[in-house]
Design a protein that fits this description.
Layout lengths: L3 H17 L1 H4 L4 H9 L7 H11 L5 H13 L13 H39 L10 H8 L2 H15 L15 H27 L2 H8 L4 H29 L2 H6 L5 H11 L2 H30 L1 H4 L15 H22 L30 H31 L2 H13 L2 H12 L3 H12 L1 H15 L2 H8 L4 H23 L1 H13 L11 H8 L8 H28 L82
Helix pairs in contact: 1-14, 1-18, 3-4, 6-9, 6-11, 6-14, 7-9, 7-26, 8-9, 9-11, 9-23, 11-14, 11-21, 13-14, 14-18, 16-17, 16-26, 17-20, 17-21, 17-23, 17-24, 17-26, 18-21, 19-20, 20-24, 21-23, 23-26, 24-25, 25-26
Length: 653
């Protein structure tokens, strides 16, 4: 049977084979790459290139090269670098050690920040005082800011001005602090937002209400609520750990840290195939190891409740959005629209060489960039390209993540591999096939951006399948389509959609990084990410050129989560109301009109005592006209007639 292990092995082998074909996919002669790197003084004559191919085994084509690399891998030999001529294993091992150290430090920062961001919700929920929906604006701000902006600010303040930490290089434990902060803050903001989003559902479950009624201390309730939320969030933690190891290319470059991500990028740009293959192999193995550890941790936390299908269904309580949230949405939307409209009225391509890096003024409200172009104009004209592309990618990755997450046995390994691949390497592979351009960059981002959403979907789907109400629906005859539409998707879709909204700015930044490397839209196209990349070298002299696109990305991220919170507060029902009383069931869920216990319950659609009004609805087994309700001839006037425990309107009405 094609199980998860076989799927993971097939995905890893397929991707490694694709990486091995990179020089031939790009239609670049590997011998010419080796000649330029090792023998710059020799002319690229056919005889010289033929000699290099014969010496390195390239004359046989990609098949023998890949086969030779695999045979060497079986002996523990990763080959020799095409560029430096040095053995690959020591270089990649040293880079992996640096990246693992950075990853550990960044994870500590991320976990501390996630705990701080979710502390208020946890405290209020444990005390039964959670009344309003929270947008998580602080988490959205931190998640929307680019890592290299964090890194630049930290390096300027703490390394250059205060001199507390070394600005460059890898000299010991003190070198870990600034890169770990730059990498851990955005990751912690994402984890904190997801934890803050999951806590209300856990704290609204019956056990939490029972614990409060019995006077159990809020601290113990909070501890159990965290344990209840962790199984769904552990896959994200594993993906973050693997992503921090190979995806922090910008931070490694800024601080001159010899990590695995920077080594892979350098090898990919130079087409140094042995080094690139070794880096990708290390990242893939790390991703698969993280996925295995996450799977074991989930099983340990859920225990027998997962195998016995005894989990309660996670449903967010009714938390209405307050007026402040609506005002915030209107203000952010108006501010973003005003900036875009004002920029659209200006020419983004006009160059004023006499006003390069000019301060903000009436002529240039946001100043000019290094070429003398108006920042406001480029901000407005880049909004359509940045925002619309990011939103379309969010929808595409959401759909792909949902489909992949609903088939975890087939796609679990592919998810771990896709997350472990640095987006830059994916961009190079896509560009080699489709050519550089905006469409190729978007395809590369979509090729890896679905993995976190798929992992989140798979975790929630596994828990929903083990819920008790699903077992009840199955026992009563509900079909696969009914269970999926009425029971499974209502518990999976809302949190995954909110997760996708948080990732909108990250998708825009991923597009920008590929564009800066020449794999996206060519210059002088206006794009917020390209504006950041082009003006980062002048951040200290002209900070407005960097602050303007950064602020626009922050506004986009906060607006996305605020609108999602408003929509969720308007539609979220079920679980527990804001005052702590049980709320009405979720429309379309297992207990509502049209559900298992409501009017029109599908599993019991017959004409007898279990007829089409549902098990407990009007005309059902316990409702009006049913066996125990008002109008039942056998028990009319008896102790169980309406009004009573089985009321005339039925439990589901």
């Amino acid at each position: 049977m094609f199980g998860p292990a076989a799927a993971a092995f097939a995905a890893a082998a397929g991707f490694l084979a694709l990486v091995g074909l990179l020089p031939w996919l790009t239609r670049t002669d590997p011998a010419l790459t080796i000649l330029r790197a090792r023998y710059a003084d020799r002319p690229p004559t056919p005889d010289v290139l033929a000699a290099i191919r014969a010496d390195t085994g390239l004359d046989g084509g990609p098949g023998p090269v890949l086969g030779g690399w695999l045979s060497g891998l079986a002996r523990g030999d990763l080959g020799t670098s095409w560029v430096s001529g040095e053995p690959v294993l020591p270089t990649v091992s040293a880079a992996l050690g640096v990246s693992l150290t950075l990853m550990a430090g960044a994870l500590l920062v991320a976990l501390a920040l996630a705990a701080a961001l979710a502390a208020r919700t946890l405290r209020l929920g444990a005390r039964r005082e959670l009344r309003r929906a929270r947008a998580g604006a602080a988490a959205a701000v931190l998640a929307a800011l680019p890592e290299f902006v964090f890194a630049a600010v930290l390096a300027t303040v703490f390394a250059v001005q205060l001199g507390w930490f070394p600005p460059l290089g890898w000299t010991g434990p003190v070198s870990v602090v600034l890169p770990a902060l730059a990498m851990g803050l955005p990751a912690g903001a994402l984890l904190g937002r997801l934890l803050d989003d999951a806590l209300p559902a856990a704290l609204a479950e019956p056990w939490a209400r029972t614990a409060a009624a019995y006077g159990i201390p809020p601290r113990r309730v909070a501890r159990h609520a965290l344990r209840r939320c962790l199984p769904a969030l552990l896959p994200q933690l594993g993906l973050v750990a693997a992503g921090l190891t190979g995806g922090a290319v910008a931070v490694e470059k800024l601080f001159a840290v010899p990590g695995l991500g920077g080594t892979a990028l350098t090898a990919a740009l130079a087409l140094d195939l042995p080094v690139l293959q070794a880096c990708v192999l290390a990242l893939v193995l790390l991703g698969l190891a993280a996925a295995g550890a996450v799977r074991a941790g989930r099983r340990a936390l859920l225990g027998a409740a997962l195998t016995d299908r005894a989990l309660p269904a996670l449903r967010r309580p009714r938390l209405p959005a307050g007026p402040g949230l609506r005002i915030t949405a209107y203000a952010l939307g108006a501010l973003l629209a005003a900036g875009v409209i004002a920029g659209l009225l200006r020419d983004p391509l006009y160059v004023d060489t006499a006003a390069r890096l000019a301060d903000p003024s009436w002529a240039h409200p946001l100043g000019t960039d290094a070429l003398g172009r108006d920042v406001l104009a480029r901000l407005g004209h880049g909004a359509g390209r940045t925002v619309l592309t990011a939103v379309v990618l969010a929808v595409v990755t959401l759909a792909a993540g949902l489909l992949a997450g609903l088939l975890p046995r087939l796609t679990g390994g592919l998810t771990a591999v896709a997350n472990a691949v640095p987006p830059v390497v994916a961009g190079l592979l896509v560009a080699s096939v489709a050519g550089p351009g905006a469409a190729g960059a978007a395809l590369a981002v979509a090729a890896t951006g679905w993995a976190p959403l798929a992992a989140h979907t798979a975790a929630l789907y596994e828990q929903e399948r083990a819920a008790t109400h699903l077992a009840g629906a199955t026992a009563l005859g509900a079909g696969t389509r009914h269970r999926l539409r009425r029971h499974l998707l209502p518990g999976v879709l809302p949190p995954v959609i909110r997760h996708a909204a948080v990732r909108v700015p990250a998708l825009a930044l991923a597009l920008a990084s590929l564009g800066f490397l020449g794999l996206g839209a060519p210059p002088p196209a206006a794009d917020w990410g390209r504006m950041l990349a082009e003006n980062m070298p002048y951040a200290e002299r002209a900070p407005w050129a960097v602050l303007a696109p950064s602020a626009a990305l922050v506004l986009l991220g906060v607006l996305a989560v605020v609108l999602t919170a408003l929509a969720d507060g308007a539609s979220a029902v079920g679980g527990e109301a804001a005052d702590g009383a049980p709320a009405g069931p979720r429309r379309g869920g297992p207990l509502n009109r049209g559900g298992l216990l409501g009017r029109g319950g599908h599993p019991l659609r017959s004409r007898g005592p279990l007829r089409s009004r549902g098990l407990l609805g009007r005309g059902g087994l316990l409702g009006r006209g049913g066996l125990l309700g008002r109008g039942a001839a056998s028990l009319r006037g008896g102790p169980l007639r309406s009004p009573g425990p089985a009321r005339a309107e039925g439990a589901g009405r």
